[in-house]
Amino acid sequence: MPNTKEPRAIFSRFRPSRRSLAGFLVGVLCGGGIGLTMLIHINPPPTERTEQVFIYGTLLNPYIRNIACLCQTSSTPVTLPHYEKVGRNIVPQENSVVYGAVIQVSSRELRRLDRYEKVPRKYRREQITIAGDDYWVYRLNF
C-alpha cells in the first residue's frame, strides 16, 4: 500500500525570530559565516559613571569584575588607611592599611555589584572617605 502522507520537513517547527535572523544575516554579510554571529555583542549606550567603589577582594580581578557588573572598568590602586583585611572583610584597625583599588561605575552597574555581593544578606554597602573623597565599600554583615 503506497504512503499517502506528505513527508514532513525536518525543521518544520523551527521558526527563527527576527533578532536571530538579523544576526545571521549580519554575520553572513560581514564575511564571518555563522560563527561570527555568536560573537556579535551590541553594546548599550555609554552611561555616566558617577559612583566610586573601593574594591579589595575578588573584584580586583578584571574578569570577575566584568562578569559581576557587566561592564569593563579600569581600576586605580589605592590604600585604605585605618582598616585591616580579616578574611573576606575589612574592619577598623589603627596603624593598618588595606591595599585595594577604586573603580568608577554607573548607578546601574552599582546595583549589579550589589547583587553580586548579595546585599543585604551577605554584605552591606557603606560610604567611606579616603583622602577627602567618598567611596562605596562592601563589608560583611554580622
Give a written overview of the molecule:
With 142 residues, this protein is of the alpha+beta class. The chain folds into two domains: 15-43, no CATH class; 51-140, Gamma-glutamyl cyclotransferase-like (Hypothetical upf0131 protein ytfp, Roll), CATH 3.10.490.10. It contains four helices and five strands, in the order ααβαββαββ. The protein has helices spanning 18-29, 33-39, 62-69, 107-116; strands spanning 51-55, 75-86, 89-105, 123-130, 133-140.
* The CATH homology group name of the largest domain: Gamma-glutamyl cyclotransferase-like
Mean pLDDT: 78
Query: How many beta-strand segments?
Result: 5
Number of domains: 2
Largest sheet: 5 strands, mixed
CATH architecture of the largest domain: Roll
How many helix segments?
4
Here the CATH topology of the largest domain equals Hypothetical upf0131 protein ytfp
Proportion of residues in extended strands? 35-45%
- What is the class of the largest domain in the CATH system? Alpha Beta
- State the end-to-end CA separation: 78 Å
Spans of at least 5 consecutive residues whose pLDDT stays below 50 are 9-14, 33-43
Which descriptor suits the 3D outline? globular
Report the radius of gyration as a whole number of Å. 24 Å
Order of helices and strands: HHEHEEHEE
